[in-house]
Queue: 4 jobs
Job 1
Amino acid sequence: MTKRLLLALLTCASLLALAPAAGAVELTKLGSTPAQGEAQAEIAAYDPATEQAFVTNAEDNTLDIYDFSDPTALGDPVAIDLSPYGAGPNSVDVSKDGLVAVAVEADPITAAGSVEIFDTDGNHLRSFPAGSLPDMLTFAEHDRYLLVANEGEALSSDDDPQGSVTVIKLNKKLSKSTVRTTGLAGVPRVGEYRIACPGTPFAQDAEPEYISEGGFGTALVTLQETNAVGVLDIERGRFVLVRGLGYKDHGKARNALDPSDDDGGININPWDGLEGMYQPDAIASYTWFGLPYYVTANEGDARERDGCEEEDRVGDVGLDPAAFPNAEELEDDAALGRLNVSTTTGDPDGDGDLDRIFSFGARSFSILGPLGGLLWDSGSQLERIAAAEEPERFNFSNEEPGELDERSDSKGPEPEGIDVGTVGFRTYAFVASERQGGIYAYRLQGPAASFEDYLNARPEDLGPEGVRFVSRSDSPTGRAMLLVTNEISGTVTAIDVAP
């Protein structure tokens, strides 16, 4: 053993010896804002200096400001009208200096949107141009940059803009800030990805969904429908790599799922021949021994536009008998017959039946490496945990009253929001399940994770869309907290995170 290797091992052992004894976090609901209605609370950002939460309200086209100084007694918001700037907000973030950035889409959504900058009192300061359908934004590099994921969603094959990312290099004098929007044309691609609409160039088919800053001047961008992520060079404002995430083998026991809403209840089993597309939505990052890692919520999404509608049920499309000798058995409604799958990716020869079965989303969250490589996946855990914690709500929809097993044929619990944070010297991932409504807490240790707690705030809070971690030092309670925005109920939920 070399001296260098021995020194490294001794250093690691010393660091581990300093780590606290194992223990779980506990999630407890503190309170919710008054119910506003569907699409009136989608994404939230928190400003510790003013103890305010800034929440996007797409239904009313407003930025709603809530007083969170006491999360147990939350009142109505102050609304900032966004109609002078565009057709509706999709994302919000707050810098340490009190700049509030809002991503606003245009009408139609294929036109160029904008980023609007406010102070924490709601005064408008500046507008910046963005790409088509700015869907998410985040401050990066110690607030020197603002990164915007422009989804570029299509209305039809004739009105399908390219997805892009806008990089705004901020100056203290906002008027001197620079703006660069970059797409995916010509970017090297590796791994297994897909074209959702066959015949469409990748740069046009890819739709940037979410961004998280990592390390070494890079960020990772989820390209949900194409089952890939893009590596972004922040300073140069361009993509350097696209990495396909491959497919999840649901024939393995660790990747089991319940694929039917017509099988009499909870039946989580492996299914040979069924493959899941990870298709991550939200992404967040953390550091372990100096290396950046990313966690993704693998929600899944189908392409739906004029001329390209790929979602259908296995039983309605039918399976190729040569590829699936047991096709008749699999097409039964209690088996895979009710499962929603891709007809474009699953039918490469275009003969009208499925040669491979690709379901949307992986019903999981994953850990990716610095350049987007898949390192770990939660397998069937989210579905199994939900079944154990609240079997009476298993795979509910996000509306009330729910129905047992209702979403098993379509993405199951549907993990959508994710964030990371440190509690008691440990790093955790918090995953929001959009449909059933549960919030999962997982401890992160390098490229692996272990489950610790689960909380569901139904029926008051429905359809968690986003989750935002607030550290103990920033929290008004003096303890770590989550802000969960619930799209269906229009509420923002404060959750205590106690070690």
Job 2
Amino acid sequence: MLALLGREAMRRLRNAHTANGLTPQQFQLLGLLHDHGPSAQSDLAAATDTAASVLVTQLNPLEAEGLVARERDPHDRRRHLVMITDDGQRRLGTASTAQKQVDDALFRSLNTRQRAQLAQLLALVRDDLTEGNTHCGTPASLDIRMS
């Protein structure tokens, strides 16, 4: 049942993200930058469990659209820092609203108490499966909100 629900949820979320000009991975990157501020590309690669070469292919279109900016780290010229721009903040906000609408549609049959309980239970399962790894799942500010 979880696999079926997960597939349907991902389809709907992917559609919400692409309607806002983002892939789910780009949405996650913008969320991480929003939550944690400027980050080294190597840290973003580790946080998303993505190869550095693949991360670059996700960042390039975001930079071309002006949603992120990359600059040399003033403390370590070998590293690039990635930061979300004002346009990136706006796009993330719009995509987050679309994601919340998907969440609301997915869980419309549950009342407020049930939604809060489900969110808590899912977080417990996620944390157990990931051994509390903060790099797993969605950025904290964009985590499942069912209230």
Job 3
Amino acid sequence: MDMNSSKETKPDARAVEIIREAAGPGLRNLSENSSARLIEAYGVAVAESRLCAGAEEAAECAGAMGYPVALKLCSPDAPHKKEMGFVKIGLGSADAVLEAAKEMLSRAEGVTVEGLLVQRQVRGERELIAGMRRDRTFGPCVTLGVGGVFTEAMKDISVRVAPICAEDAGEMLDELKTAKMFGSYRGLPAVDREALAKILIGLGEIGLNHPEIEEIDVNPLIIDGTGKPIAVDALVVLGAGGKA
């Protein structure tokens, strides 16, 4: 993404363009690449990635990016890529990327393939999940929860109706039962609250500005070694109306 263009074009206009480019007739899910571009337009920090046309290009891109990398098959038909075998992490060489890419493509029969997404692997020991849900009564609601292995077991989630402010975002973090994990914890830095607030505020703004978007899942938000939350995977779900 051209970061200079973000100063010239309003986030909502850029998001509309992304949706129009990505959303075909009847399509409900944006691909991960399109989803990441959309949330990035609203200030969400996303992991460095590049969409590649084929296996060889993916291997070249991974070498230029630096190992280890994650490799994902990018498709609007595969919202749950991991379960479909379309995600490989910890790839440490061009040969490993090439082999994984060829395997994914060989299994992608009947799936619309946008390309192969090579992503710099973000290192971190703590994870959050964030999102936006459109409630029939309250409208767009922003969610924040603990991620990783504890997600299903703890169901530790805080919710606010959009729009939200930085103070709301801080309260959402503090309301989590696991909030202490995201302070200075076992030698790890506290999560960057300003950066987290920017993410949650941005998700709320998307919901307010784009009624065609039904849901956004950002899972996980990995807290890196500096305390910054970075989106590693994103899914944007459109409502029944589809296009913007």
Job 4
Amino acid sequence: MKPEHWWFRARCNIINEILKTFLDSKDKKYVNILDIGSGLGQLFPVWKEFGNVYGVEKNIDFTELSKNNYPNVTVWNDVFPDKNSLKYKYDLVCMCDFLEHVPNSNLILERINKILNKDGLLLVTVPAYSWMWSKIDVEAKHFKRYSRSGLIREIELCKFRSIYSSYFMIFLFPLVIFIRKIVNPIVNRNKGLVDFKYGKGGLSNTILYYIFNLEKFFIRRRMILPYGLSVLGVFKKICD
């Protein structure tokens, strides 16, 4: 998906609201942020508002594009935990739609805990609900989908404490369920609404962006939405 895709744009706004809540009081000159599985760097502009940004991405083409598009960001072509990112300490580590690609998260989470500063934060987003598993997950090489409680339980086992978590994409939830569970089986297609490639300026892209973007007003107030297509969690490192 392109950066102007409605899903990327609205997700960036929601994450920005979260970071304002937890990082706005810090001097960004001294805040180090690591983005694990940084992809094309779509979230780099968000992270840059709050500190110095580092990224780890295993896809060499994505890494090169990120370096060209964001010359002020340090991006390593590697698989976390990698020797480069482990050299530094961070105030925030982010895994946005990354953890579902990991068969065993314990090693990842334990290493993240070690490279976080005291009271460091971990921000995670993952797809919701195992009952929503479909061919889309198989093609995307997912290993799992999460409930909100399941995400909290998995991460808290690795010396973190949940300080905020919520479902999101609540308004589009009924429409996507209808398409994936009713429409797709009938027409024998396994592509959900979130995979449509609406282009910049397209009417559908604009409408879906504004619907999704409404959720930032709830997230800003740290409200817990009862359901949605994804889960967002912010966790604090527990010091020994």
